[in-house]
Amino acid sequence: MFGFSTSKAPEFPPNSQWLNSDLQISLSKLKGHVVVLDFWTYCCINCMHTLPTLARLEKQYSEKPVVFVGVHSGKFFTEQEPKNIQSAISRYEIEHPVVVDQKMQIWQSYGVQAWPTIIILDPSGNVIYHQSGEARYEEISDTIDVLLETNQRKGTLAKEHFKIHKKTTSSQNSISFPGKISISKSGKIALSDSNHNRILVLDSSGNILHKIGSGAAGLADGSFVSAKFFRPQGIVWDEEVLFVADTENHALRKIDFSELNVVTLAGNGRQGPWRSYGGKGIETELCSPWDIAIKNGLVYIAMAGNHQIWTYDVQSEMVLPFAGTGQENIIDGPAKSAQLAQPSGLYLYGDHLYFVDSEVSAVRRIDLTNNQVQTIVGRGLFEFGHEDGHVDDSLFQHPLGLCVTKDSIFVADTYNSSIRVIDLQSMQVYTLIGKTLTGTVCLPQTTSCDILGLYEPSDVKIHDGKLYIADTNNHLIRVFDLQSNVLETMEIN
């Protein structure tokens, strides 16, 4: 909870850059208000889990002298850029103002040590609550209530509430923050249109064959028109069925094209705990499933929220932990004792399950014949960058998707806004499409690659000699022809 030993809150640095607001905010302007500071970085899954709690609290105290402020102290290089932070604000529909803490000056002045951290200031500008980890709704609500009641009696609450005018931005594209792609044997393209809360099925020309989901955020089974998703990510074809990682519903869903309906297989809309032993499908809470793969009736689930990979058995309907202890790290070995760090992309090839561990900027795989985890590229939580070369020397930056062929691993190197390739024969890494320190790269160099830059792509899939790229922050699907080396934008109709 909180005690009554207080310290004066440091002021925001002068000339700080503010997003999501048309005001330059200072603590002096917020005198008389309870101020809730959320120290976050947009890659962090625990920060994402905190946002719904903050949204609930903002609504609860919308008529009270309570102000919520995000302090974005970026971990990765990419997360320090205001343009990219603004995209994250739009993606997660954040309503409160956010200050760009580019050099972590505010972070240091408040003695913050972990993402996320919640700090609450009383109306006199004193720090009275400091909590690291995912936001605890009851604690924060109780703290705010006590502060409001106490300061109401003392007459120290502001007479007029501080009004923040949010700057609104919206995408005019036909898709919004596309997450993952899956391509059937017949060439049908499934796409998670994440911020439109739906799944699209396209033909190779971009014509829409099916729209699945009403567009409203929620968890509801039923017809393609009435079903509801909430920012879905991972999808995978299994004959005429699509499995969906319905990320912010914390659920595994099935789209049946013979029945033309959507059914929930696992999860119940509630975020699961950090440690869980699994259980029966819809009776078991999942934790931010981000991607899926399927083999022989076993669905593999990248459980980003608790740093594990789980399985769902189609026959028994049991969902169980498969790899990772839940501790966030990069440690190889037997699947059950290995440590993962926010697995966010899966791909099955042969007897191996390949995956990207985004928080350690790693590409890894599990040998399914002996369930051993092996790291191909990746060193640690704070080892990241954009370096080509041998796998032992190369660096990625928060990759989210991948696909595999006999000779290559294609990686959506998200925060480098690049498509990278790991050559499995030479074990060399090179940049196929994207930006490096020396400029834009597309091998071989073409005009189209120069013009059509990627912006935090989340997935890449290969079909019939072409790479299909979810160009997430551009709200586009890109197609790169591996024979002609031409990069194009798919027109979705």
Outline the structure in words.
This protein has 493 residues and is mainly beta. It folds into 2 domains: 148 residues, 3-Layer(aba) Sandwich (Glutaredoxin); 312 residues, 6 Propeller (Neuraminidase). It has 5 helices and 36 strands. It has a 7-stranded mixed beta sheet with strand order 1-7-6-3-4-5-2. Strands 27, 28, 29, 30, 31 and 32 form a 6-stranded antiparallel beta sheet that branches. It has a 5-stranded antiparallel beta sheet with strand order 12-16-15-14-13, with no helix packed on it. Strand 6 and strand 7 form a beta hairpin. The longest helix has 18 residues. The model has no long low-confidence stretch (mean pLDDT 93).
Quick take:
The chain is mainly beta. It is 11% helix and 37% strand. The strands form 7 sheets. Strands 1-7-6-3-4-5-2 form a 7-stranded mixed sheet. Strands 27, 28, 29, 30, 31 and 32 form a 6-stranded antiparallel sheet that branches. The protein has a 5-stranded antiparallel sheet with strand order 12-16-15-14-13, with no helix packed on it.
Task: Break the fold down into its secondary structure elements and pairings.
Elements: E1 7-8, E2 18-19, E3 34-40, H1 45-60, E4 66-72, H2 82-91, E5 98-100, H3 105-109, E6 117-121, E7 126-132, H4 137-154, E8 178-183, E9 189-193, E10 198-202, E11 208-212, E12 222-223, E13 235-238, E14 241-246, E15 251-256, E16 261-266, E17 279-280, E18 289-295, E19 298-303, E20 308-313, E21 318-323, E22 333-334, E23 343-349, E24 352-357, E25 362-367, E26 372-377, E27 389-390, E28 401-404, E29 408-413, E30 418-423, E31 428-436, E32 439-442, H5 447-451, E33 459-463, E34 466-471, E35 476-481, E36 486-489
Parallel strand pairs: 3-4, 4-5
Antiparallel strand pairs: 1-7, 2-5, 3-6, 6-7, 8-9, 9-10, 10-11, 12-16, 13-14, 14-15, 15-16, 17-21, 18-19, 19-20, 20-21, 22-26, 23-24, 24-25, 25-26, 27-31, 28-29, 29-30, 30-31, 31-32, 33-34, 34-35, 35-36
